[in-house]
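Quick one: structure tokens for this chain, please?
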Amino acid sequence: MTSPTLPNPTPTVTPETEPMWKAADEGRLLVTRCDQCHTYLWYPRAVCSACSTMDVSWHEVSGRATVYSYTVVRRGSGLYKDATPYVLAYVALQEGPCMLTNVVDCDIADVRIGLEVEVVFHHSDAGQAFPRFRPREGAA
């Protein structure tokens, strides 16, 4: 069963996350990376969670990932109340960090741990783009 169209809520853009959202509008996925220990960080932050330095900067990543864990939501709430069933997943980016996201554009029965996925950008009602992931061609 393919999930219905998911709602596209407008994300909260803060000064700390503005570069990420601006890049998303351009179809690029940015994450922060520690300039000392080279750890990629998700969710964007000003302090490295691995070595505690404040020496972090923005880096474009490939947008390729694998499904690390997932669940099929069958009883949504709020904006997602009528969007069930849909897939909520942690995907491990090729560069290392895991993102909480939706897997879209596929039959939910085909989603599995280890599935290779790639970023796609959906636009909110206000026009802001945000990342979701779909199976890479030939991966489903």
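The longest helix spans residues 18-25.
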